[in-house]
User: Fold this.
Amino acid sequence: MKSIAIVTRANEATNWGGDLKALYTIRDGLNDIGYQAITTPNINVACDSDFVFVSNTCLDLSKYHAPLKSSGKPFGLIAFHEDYKLYQGMSGWYPTYIRELINNNKLDSLKKPEYRTGGSASAGNRQLIESCDLVVLNSEHELGTMKRDYPKARGEVVYWTPGFADEWTDINTSSFCEKYNLTPGEYMLQVGRLETRKNTIGTILATQDMTMPLVLIGNKGGQGWYLDIVTECLRRRKGPTIIISDYIQSQTSERITVHNTQQQFGGKLPTELLKSAFTDAALNVHPAFYELPGYTYLEAAAVGTPSVGGEWCSIGEYGLGDLVKMCCSYDVDSIRQAIDFQLSNQPTTKPQDVPFLSRTKTDVAKDLIKLL
Assistant:
């Protein structure tokens, strides 16, 4: 086996996400160790390779089964397999609950709501998943979910690199603070698409009485309506908020400033500015309902910046110690307590103490090849 193809989602050109970073990292690592690896959204192109990986159980994978079988090539899955049963009921309902409180002028009475279950794995993907020669998961947590949902899946764990931090070794920190008129060490940061799973409104509501600036770096997600709730919640923040986005038009209003990266850079925020944003932040706040594992926690940790994370995320397996403090994503008080704790306590864990932060694309590629 010499050539390996990885099938990406059809909208990769217009909808950036951590899944693409992971797939590109695997591709580049495989090429570095002597394989001919490509990424492509075209299953027919992929089937020309010796081994084919499809990706992402959030999508309809059933359409790939027939061409893969007819090609006669061995194939696998890079899963990104989310526990819908655990988190989707809450993440989908919570914004509606918040909007109802806002509409009825009852947001001041917000308390931790009762947990709601909901969601399930796709039955339509079962045949393909259980036919795969290998299913790749990025944590034991994810492997457990896969085995629960698809007991016949041939799952193995391969841990990821620390996201964009694997590109930062030779990059000097550039001046994010100068560009956006911020003071190093005096702002909170959340990076991620503006959508329910990332729980942007949880961060906003937990910090609404704080004067410390909040920076939201958020590319376009698949839920345009969510921005309306984000905007409504932001109007309640005492402190300033800066939004850096590839799809919201640049504008300035009372305490809210938006910078459009398409206008500024012709695309997403450059990697060197992302590093600077993490380096100079007082805290990375990301109380997501679900992440596997959550690149932003690793990227923040790589430069020594502490984080607040959602307790359902699998980042706990990556050995960050007190660089990350977990919270209940649908409990604003829990999020705020974690924020206050991290802002008041210097982490004792140093980046050099965390083996996962030194993983490279070739490490990931070698681990993957051992399983093929």
